[in-house]
Specification:
13-stranded antiparallel beta sheet; 13 strands
């Protein structure tokens, strides 16, 4: 069965709608307007941190329950009017140590991603059509690792319902780029109080449930920004999962755009 979704607006129309959308979910009238208003508010509340650094522990579990672990350092920078820059630097185990993923997200254009592999000392560009592939053997794709820019989706409110003790909005987001995205659509649960995401269901191109991402242990930083300490991505079709634990999260550390230059990947440690 093919993915049954509404016809997507051209990107420039989507942006015009975003700029003229209702100020709050309560003022929206149609499911599309309400979904967009919810997404805009969530984006507003999570933005403005400047830059951040963190440590990340990644546990990969296969269908039989066997696990392997990896440790990474994450660096992120907001670029005003453009998008987000991020670095994922692997520290362990030895066979992936020094591997680096650099991502430049864009609000309108395709995101740019480069992977540095220390064994070959070469930088490989991740093509747009390959971004649905697994990121370093995990259940996260390269598409998942990139920050989800607001303009890359169209939105629709589906329902209000509780999840894990939180009164939530349930919204559908559909990728504008249906050719290169690995997903037909995503369904997300955001709490009404702080617009934090608690769960996301990912549907493949056949509109079948592929993966579910859940969030736990939210903590507030700088008296404003909520970040989850734990995330788990479960692949319903393979039985595999990936568990993430965040630590040592710091904001406004002084990172600059030059710190996210692809030509410097071979020099990073």
């Amino acid at each position: 069965m093919r993915c049954k979704v509404r016809v997507l607006l051209p990107l420039y129309i989507t942006m015009v709608v975003a700029l003229t959308a209702p100020a709050s979910a309560g003022e929206a009238t149609s499911p599309e307007e309400r979904g967009l208003a919810i997404a805009r508010e969530a984006d507003r509340l999570s933005s403005g941190y400047g830059d951040s650094t963190a440590n990340l522990r990644m546990v990969l579990r296969n269908r039989e329950g066997l696990t392997s672990e990896r440790e990474l350092r994450i660096r992120t920078l907001e670029v005003e009017g453009e998008g987000t820059r991020s670095l994922c630097i692997f520290d362990t185990p030895a066979d992936v140590k020094g591997t680096i993923l650099l991502t430049h997200t864009h609000k309108q254009a395709d995101d740019d991603q480069w992977l540095f592999l220390p064994a070959t000392r070469r930088i490989r560009r991740i093509a747009a059509q390959n971004k649905s592939g697994s990121f370093m053997g995990s259940e996260f794709s390269y598409e998942d690792i990139a920050v989800q820019e607001l303009e890359k989706y169209t939105y629709r409110w589906l329902a209000d319902e509780p999840y894990d003790g939180n009164d939530c909005y349930v919204i559908e987001r559909v990728p504008v780029d249906r050719v290169n995205s690995g997903y037909c659509r995503q369904v997300a649960w955001l709490d009404k109080e702080h617009y934090r995401t608690w769960k996301v269901d990912y549907y493949d191109r056949k509109n079948e449930l592929l993966k579910t991402l859940t969030f736990k242990g939210y903590e507030k930083h700088l008296d404003r920004f909520w970040r989850a300490r734990q995330m788990e991505m479960v692949n319903h079709q393979t039985g595999k999962s990936t568990f993430l634990t965040w630590s040592n999260l710091s904001f406004r550390t002084g990172l600059k755009e030059i710190d996210f230059d692809r030509h410097s990947l071979t020099l990073l440690r």
